[in-house]
Structure prediction request, 78 residues.
Amino acid sequence: MKADALTAPRHTLDTTVHDVVREAVGHLIDSRQIRPDSFADPVYVVLDDVDGELRTRELAAAFCGGLEPLARAVPTSS
Prediction:
């Protein structure tokens, strides 16, 4: 999954949201739900080897939807 905030300027990640997105990506990597070369920066998120189209759509919507949808899609311990 690739999400590009450059083509949707209103979705550029502020510092707080970017920190949460990076934590979510780290959690997905640590739990082996995506490959370790996946990443998130303030304008681009890449999640490699997401398991199936449904999970890909869920994560794409969550990463573009804000903190609450992201917390539901990628629950972390913190």
